[in-house]
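Supplementary Text 2. Reproducibility record for the structural model of the 79-residue chain.

All settings were left at their defaults, and a single model was retained for analysis rather than an ensemble. We include the record here because the model underlies the residue-level annotations in Supplementary Table 4.
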Amino acid sequence: MRAIELCQHHGLVSVAFPAISTGIYRFPADRAAQIAVSTTAEALKAAPAIARVIFCCFSRESAVLHAQVMAEFGEPCND
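Retained model, structure tokens:
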């Protein structure tokens, strides 16, 4: 993921991603959460300096879906 690469390159330790495209564009929210979390988790393997990733969810449903996927990866979810 290019965003993670850029964070690593510039020495950033945290990044936030908005959970988008699931509203008016009607992309399935469960699929969006799976893609976002799994892609980010994979990219973080090559970016040890990044200590915090925030998924900005605009609904409780989206937050729950992201938390569920994060749990599958063994990652804690801090509301």
